[in-house]
């Protein structure tokens, strides 16, 4: 029973009153306002630089795609030009011209033929 009374006495003890004259201990802040401003400005500058890099990359990619399209169209035009020059050579052959002339009723007159030499 004595133990029981001791436990009750221990439990019922009034809390130690705090001294009202003591001021609470102020904890030192880890990050000051100036450091917060510096960190925020650094973060803002970093984000802006990252956005500029991304924007420049997108402009470069768009330009590259446009250049590739232009090069493809140039290749197509070169193929067409090559095909047309081959067609011109085929159509301007002597035999074909002579056949068309005969078809139209023209005759070859040796006295009426003039030889033209290019470059003179």
Automatic annotation (TrEMBL):
| Primary location class | membrane
**Short name of any one Pfam family annotated for the protein:** DivIC
Subcellular location, record wording: Cell membrane
Give UniProt keywords alphabetically. Answer: Cell cycle, Cell division, Cell membrane, Membrane, Transmembrane, Transmembrane helix
Q: What does the entry give for GO biological process?
A: cell division
From the record, give the transmembrane residue ranges: 37-54
Cell membrane in keyword set: yes
Specify the superkingdom. Answer: Bacteria
What kind of membrane protein is this, topologically?
Single-pass type II membrane protein
Q: What does this protein do?
A: Essential cell division protein.
Q: What family does this chain come from, according to its entry?
A: Belongs to the FtsL family.
Protein name per the record: Cell division protein FtsL
Per the UniProt record, the source organism is Planococcus shenhongbingii
Q: Which gene encodes it?
A: ftsL
């Amino acid at each position: 029973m004595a133990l029981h009374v001791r436990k009750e006495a221990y439990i019922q003890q009034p809390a130690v009153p705090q001294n009202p004259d003591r001021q609470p201990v102020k904890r030192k802040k880890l990050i000051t306002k100036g450091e917060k401003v510096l960190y925020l400005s650094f973060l803002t500058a970093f984000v802006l630089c990252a956005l500029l890099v991304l924007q420049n990359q997108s402009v470069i990619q768009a330009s590259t795609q446009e250049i590739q399209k232009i090069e493809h169209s140039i290749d197509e035009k070169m193929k067409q030009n090559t095909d047309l020059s081959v067609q011109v050579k085929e159509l301007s052959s002597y035999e074909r011209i002579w056949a068309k002339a005969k078809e139209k009723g023209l005759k070859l007159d040796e006295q009426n033929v003039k030889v033209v030499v290019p470059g003179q």
